[in-house]
Design goal:
The structure is a homodimer. Chain A is α+β, with helices and mostly antiparallel strands and about 625 residues long. Chain A is built from 19 helices and 22 strands. The relative contact order of chain A is 0.10. Chains A and B meet through helix 2, helix 5, helix 6, strand 6 and strand 7 of A and helix 2, helix 5, helix 6, strand 6 and strand 7 of B. Strand 22 of chain A pairs antiparallel with strand 22 of chain B.
């Protein structure tokens, strides 16, 4: 049973992603630590143990040790497996009469109780070594044992192979945290962030500056939580990022700023999003795009865990237009091909009416992707080199068949997906199909994306503005209004602002956006023109920023990396909730403490607010006295 | 003018505290960095300069450099002083016709404009060196110059000797940040925290874990900001500390946790307090008081800036009872004597009625402090060795005069302050008088507290409970309900809980509480007894914590250091606002962005709240359309 648990532990780490070399308790945190700090941290300083359970090896043979840990498992009242954050060790329960009290402690304590044991590190008898266990060559001959805390009620067994629902895991997070996977994720996160700090502070003179989280609501900040103050009607808000503050720090001559910044976004219920999240927030003066990109490439290279393979730099880059045309998205997963191919020219004179119609529209185009071995996956679709079963396809194949096959480099068993329409929507649809086909292919065992590959990509040259959804003749910022226009397009700002590209850049990893930033506007006049004339914003609300730009603002730029998402990709976790110690549920609840919760009206009085209860139902009001876990 | 500005800069740093060796632009950040990182950070990587202004020395002679900075000062269109975060450098404006365009740029740009210059590092002519300036041996012979941003409107001159009100400094914080003092404070803060991280992560295997700030209101959490959620009537709250989470991390087997944690406390208007503040938050398993104390002593020793002198360990410790009896406070300033002396025994049979009365009360006592040279300061008070001018004093002096003089070790010109009454209030009064006298003495030039001395002190053995103010027969936690009782006093818990001492400890520096922590209760039964029976709390609200303690919670303890206060004391800043980049005013306002601010009612709708406008006046409502700085 013990060994199967351990195997499960290892498998638990390796399975969901397939790219992590088998890891075992204890092997990891120390190796990461070593490479990062160039020293072995003392893990037993200041406490009532001499060693950790997981660090013991043959080199400790004969040593008298004191260990503290949790009773993981017990066999026949002879063996006991003790666990701490560093790993597992086997303990021999003494059987002689003189050690009856020790035996009693170790045999009577329920599993997951906390004990301290003292004894000698001895070799396991020949043939009883466990090569799967880092401590498998030794065991502890115990002389003294003390029960530090008895474990009473467990809502579920603490074994990784016992499948728990996520709601249960979140409600009893303190138990879930004892799993190898959660220990691994949180320790890797801590160590990777520490290396980032070394790189930024130690290698490049960045200053870690804390910026306020009690801020002022930004105009149109619909996703910002509000916090009532003690002044009637006045509210703070929790900022979505330290954007304004970091720019003001540049105006203040700080030169190089970074912060591991807590940010907030109220999006209601969104899967795999958190109302509070963390970003590595960076800003520099006198820098251009190339500078920021090199900085970030160096940062990731420096902080990357050594067991995840080296990070190659520089990262490739791609324009937004190219990303859209070839991958149908601004965050292409470049680990595999299946790029979108334009076939408009071949189909312009086709007999198929829908194609002719689509191609004659503005921005009209026909595009295709080739799904290798796609026939295996979606046999309902027509095969490229056989008879097509839709009338339109038949027309196309008859007329342009060979050309298409050649252009798409179609092989036997491949599938071609073809569509026509407005450029952006065609690309976008094929981009989504591309990813869905990749998932389907991999589910069938086709290796498409190397699980050990981390494919970084810069996406650049985004449009500065987008048409407003409600009124496409008005403009909104594609990212935020402080983004500088592309120097080559400045001349278009007054005539064709919709054509201006920006100095925004996104960092993409394996098809996920993990960072974004820009060179900012440092010229007050330009900033005012964009805010007032192009975006029709009320500039009074940003007057402090405009004033700052007029007070000797240096040219500056920066970036923010989404730490939760990055760590999620590095660890191969299936959700960002698995790299956060106490995440909220997808409905924004803390299932452990049941936050958010009702607050008595008298506690709201100092803040001059009252609850507007929904009028169509009094149900919510009644539930005041019945706190419940809505997700349990 | 330039040199006087520089002198002022230096004086500006040294004056308010007197203990900082004269420091100049550029000398500091690099020296701190060196000792901390054992490598020189590249300060000009990734950007459009080759060097910083402040780093240039004779060793750079002949080098072609490109610098970016602010025009600090210009003299006769011949010299210009350029400033960046690292310091100042003198630039020679070219006078020859061929460089007319360069001269134009450098002479026409307003002060505080941002320029880039390229040129050669040359020696200053003999006799023109400035030994007060780190770059004073060299100057830059400029060949090219570019105006990067012109400075238009400045609300005040950026010179440290121009006295600005704090409100103005906060409103234009981005200008205030350009001062040497703010640059110094923020950089020292960043570097000291970085060293703390090295010590905790690198030397002792701590894990940096981020805990949520969207939490649930704790029972009686009157100082917790509330955040409405999108569920009617339900609120998150901003926690005052990660206390519950860090204990749950220990239950989760994290073993060693730390976090530089943002915390929140809504206290309305309080001078020198901030609604959001930062603490170094630490928790360990299997630790006792001694362990935590050694850890913290090592932490401060390791992270202490080298130019502030070494930190001696271990720190002395004192019981709460002793601190009260000798210093009249739980945070004694041990940099100087003037301790409280009990003279009850000498006065028990005095002819002075008020003394007899006071001493016959329960806890009645008479105590005194000796103010050395106090006669100089408060000549209105009677002198110890002369005729006393109050009738009571006369009686006392006649009867016990010599004994008192001997007990108090009174010297010529000393003053003795004597009072009688209930022990605690007598001590407390004398404790306050002691500090006031020290201030008065120092204002008169008496050196009482060595300005270079950092006097750390542990205060221990606090009472576990205090009588409730409203009803002294009920108990409240002296600190928080998770604090473990002192092992020697456990037996009193059921009989005389008010006499039980706790395992709480405070860290005091120069009379300021800079940290506090405790060994926690890890036994669910004990925790329940204290919450339910002794404190009469509704345990349902903490059921998740009680359940966690019953699930194999290890013995654990921790501490939190107040980072803002600590950095304030280290830098010698006169207010914590001077060690925070963007602090709130004492009324809780961000004077830069004018937060908190009004929010349109429609933006409150998703949160199911509305403002309860005060009924006695409509004034606040009207001001909706007139945003103002109430403190300006």
């Amino acid at each position: 049973m013990f060994s199967s648990w351990l195997t499960q532990l290892n498998r638990g780490l390796a399975t969901p992603i397939g790219r992590v070399a088998p890891l075992i308790w204890g092997s990891l945190s120390r190796s990461l630590m070593l490479s990062s700090q160039r020293r072995v941290p003392e893990l037993s300083s200041f406490v009532a143990r001499t060693n950790t359970c997981g660090e013991l090896r043959s080199s400790h043979l004969g040593q008298e040790v004191t260990l503290c840990g949790w009773i993981q498992y017990r066999r026949q009242n002879i063996f006991l497996v003790l666990r701490d954050f560093q790993g597992l060790v086997q303990v021999l329960i003494p059987q002689d009469e003189s050690a009856a009290s020790v035996k009693k402690v170790l045999c009577e304590a329920p599993l997951e109780s906390v004990v301290r044991v003292s004894g000698t590190v001895v070799s396991r008898p020949l043939g009883q070594e466990n090569p799967k266990m880092p401590t498998g060559e030794i065991e502890i001959k115990v002389k003294a044992a003390e029960l530090l805390n008895s474990c009473k009620k467990l809502p579920f067994e603490i074994k990784d192979f016992v499948k728990k629902t996520e709601a249960l895991r979140l409600q009893y997070r303190y138990l879930d945290l004892r799993s190898f996977q959660m220990q691994y994720n949180l320790r890797l996160r801590s160590q990777m962030v520490m290396k980032m700090r070394e790189y930024l502070c130690g290698c490049h003179g960045f200053v870690d500056v804390e910026t306020p989280t009690l801020f002022k609501r930004t105009p149109g900040g619909a996703k910002e939580f509000v916090i009532p103050s003690r002044e009637p009607g006045k509210f703070y808000s929790l900022p979505q990022s330290p954007q304004q503050f970091k720019q003001l720090l540049m105006v203040g001559g700080l030169d190089r700023y970074f912060q591991v910044a807590r940010c907030y976004r109220d999006e209601g219920s969104r899967p795999d999003r958190q109302p509070e999240f963390t970003q590595i927030d960076i800003e520099m003066s006198f820098v251009d795009q190339t500078g920021i990109r090199s900085l970030i490439e160096g940062l990731l290279q420096y902080s990357w865990p050594s067991d995840k393979g080296p990070v190659g730099v520089p990262f490739p880059s791609m324009t937004f237009a190219e990303a859209l045309a070839s991958y149908g998205t601004d965050k292409p997963d470049t680990r595999f091909g299946m790029k979108i191919v334009d076939v408009s020219d071949m189909l312009r004179n086709t007999g198929a009416g829908f194609l002719r119609d689509a191609l004659s529209q503005p921005q009209g185009s026909a595009k295709a992707i080739r799904v290798p071995e796609g026939v295996e996956v979606l046999p309902v679709f027509p095969k490229a080199n056989r008879n097509w079963n839709s009338p339109v396809a038949k027309v196309v194949m008859e007329e342009q068949g060979l050309g298409l096959i050649r252009r798409m480099e179609t092989q036997e068993e491949d599938m071609v997906l073809l569509t026509a329409g407005e450029h952006k929507s065609v690309c976008s649809s094929l981009g989504k199909l591309r990813l869905e086909c990749a998932d389907l292919l991999e589910a069938r065992g086709v290796v498409l994306r190397d699980p050990a590959l981390f494919s970084f990509l810069w996406v650049v040259d985004f449009p500065l503005f987008l048409p407003k959804e409600e009124n496409p003749r008005e403009l909104v910022s594609a990212h935020h209004p402080f983004t500088a226009p592309h120097p080559s397009d400045i001349h278009l700002l007054h005539t064709q602002p919709e054509k201006v590209r920006s100095q925004h850049y996104d960092l993409v990893l394996n098809g996920n956006e993990i960072g974004g930033g820009s060179i900012r506007i440092h010229d007050a006049q330009l900033q005012r023109y964009i805010l007032e004339t192009l975006l029709k914003e009320d500039v009074r609300l940003l007057s402090h920023l405009l004033q700052a730009l007029d007070s000797g603002a240096p040219p500056h730029g920066g970036i923010a990396l989404g730490l939760d998402r990055l760590i999620c990709l590095v660890t191969g976790a299936s959700s960002i909730r698995d790299v956060i110690a106490f995440p909220k549920s997808f409905r924004g609840h803390d299932l452990l403490s049941s936050a958010p919760d009702f607050v008595p009206p008298e506690d709201l009085k100092p803040y001059h607010i009252q609850v507007s209860w929904p009028t169509d139902s009094g149900a919510e009001k009644n539930s005041l006295n019945q706190p419940q876990h809505p997700e349990s």
